[in-house]
Structure formats: structure tokens, C-alpha cells
Amino acid sequence: MCSRSLSDRPHAEIARTLAEIAKVSPYFTVTTGTLAETGWLPVRRLYTDADLLEGVVGLVRARINAAERRVAVSTLFLGMAARLWSVGLGALAGHGVLPDLTGDRLLFSETGGHIRLHIEPPVGRHGDDLEGLLADMVIEEHLTPLTAALRRGGPIAEGLLRGNSASGLLSAAMVFDRATAGDGRGWRLARRLCADERLAGAVVFDGAGYRRTSCCLYYRTPGSGVCGDCVFTTKPATGPAARGAIETA
After folding, report:
1. Which residue stretches of the chain are H helix?
2. Residue 177 pLDDT > 50, yes or no?
3. Residue 17 in contact with residue 97, Cβ under 8 Å?
4. What's the sign of the alpha-carbon dihedral 194, 195, 201, 205?
5. Longest CA span, the chain
6. 99: left (phi > 0), else alpha (psi -120 to 50), else beta?
7. Which residues contact 59 (CB under 8 A, 6 or more apart)?
8. How many CA within 13 A on the CB side of residue 48?
9. Quick one: which of 104, 136, 191, 195 is 20 to 30 A from 170 by CA?
10. Beta carbons within 8 Å of 120's beta carbon, 6+ residues apart
């Protein structure tokens, strides 16, 4: 990430901020404090330990009953992107604070294909120039290496994962604004972040709405349809020809 440190606020203040935004939804939750449970690992281990990552992909695949690895990969990535963006956006838009989610301090635990996050010690900073740091933290520290690690394990379209990143960010903003009954500051922050060249072409905005330029593939799980922001407006066919078209999205 960044050359600038994110450690100029007291631990207790950042912990209070994280506890406050956790009230928005589970995706905004990062716990803090001493861990009573075992099994927590640094999140960045997922980017370097292929066996660990594929084990988690397999558990996600079983949970959503996906016939294809790439569907589970997309679901795992979207969940991670949504969690990271939610915490950063919620803290920054709601409290003017950016928690540091880098290095070995950010831990994860997995249960049945569900990811939880924990940070110790919780540090961060106030400031007026933190939007770029948030984008760097989420994209460079986490989503870029996660993309590379997942693609080493098997084929998955990079544009699809970039779309998941943008979708997770914009969804986080809408949830935040609804939960806080605020002035739309979450949405405005997300719109500015979507202008980042690393999210270029992932979504198309139309007034107050948007649509992805790719598909997350969740419709390929049993009994599901397309998401509200999907590039498809109706559920596409699921044969080999359809697969080829979606992989290039």
C-alpha cells in the first residue's frame, strides 16, 4: 500500500469506529480485541498459500452448490471485496477515519465458506486526503494479489473480478446510506472511487443507477437468477456457448 503510515489515531478510537460501523451490516464488521478462538490467520496468507486458498474456494463451492470452480471463485472474491470496501467506506464516510487493513494485523477465519475479519491492533488516521489511500489499500494490498492468486489456480476472467470489486463498492455505499439515513455521502464517495483507473470500465452509470459490464456468474448456482446490477437483464443460457461469451466479459 501506501508510503504514508495509517497509525496516528489511538487504538481505542479506531476500535470504537469499527464497532459503530459494524451496526450497519455483517459486511461492515471487523472485530477487535483479544481473540479467544484459534484458527485465525493473516488475510494475506490467502494470496501466497495456494493450498489454503483452494481449500476456502472448495468450501465456498460446497456452500453455494456450484458445479464450476470459477463460480465459487467469483463468490469468494465478491464477498471479500464487499467486506473490505464496506469497512473502509463506512469508517471514512461515516467518521472521517480510515482504519489500517494492511499487513499481518488483518486476520480472517473461515467457517463453512463464510469469512470473518479481525484486526489487531486497530490503528488508522484522520485526514482530508484519505480516498486515494483507501483505494490503494483495498485494491493494491488485497484485491490485486487475490486476483492473481485465484487466476493461478484456474481460469477466471480478470474483468469479471474487476466488476465484482466495483459492484461490492457500490453495494456497500447503498447499504451504508440506507442504514445511516444520511445525505448520500457513501454513494458520492463510491462514485469518486469508481473513477479510479483500476476500476475502469467495470460499471456504466445512468443517472443515480448503474450496471456492470460483466457478470458475477452467481446465476449458475441452483435456483438463482441474475443480480440487479448484472450486465444481463434476464438469466442467460448455461450451455458451453454461453460460458465462452461470459468468460470474455
Report:
1. 11-21, 45-48, 50-64, 69-95, 131-135, 144-152, 158-180, 185-194, 240-247
2. yes
3. yes
4. positive
5. 55
6. beta
7. 110, 112, 113
8. 7
9. 104
10. 32, 33, 34, 35, 105, 107
Mean pLDDT of the chain: 91
Which residues have C-beta within 8 Å of that of residue 79, sequence separation ≥ 6? 115
The pTM of the full predicted model, rounded to 2 decimals, is 0.91
Chain Cα centroid distance, residue 102: 14
> Who contacts 240 (Cβ-Cβ below 8 Å, separation ≥6)?
none
pLDDT tens for each residue of 180-209: 987 999 999 999 999 999 999 999 999 889
In angstroms, the CA 81 to CA 49 distance is 19
Contacts of 139 (CB under 8 A, 6+ apart): 165, 196, 198, 199
Mean pLDDT calculated for residue range 217-246: 79
CA dihedral sign of residues 37, 43, 49, 51: positive
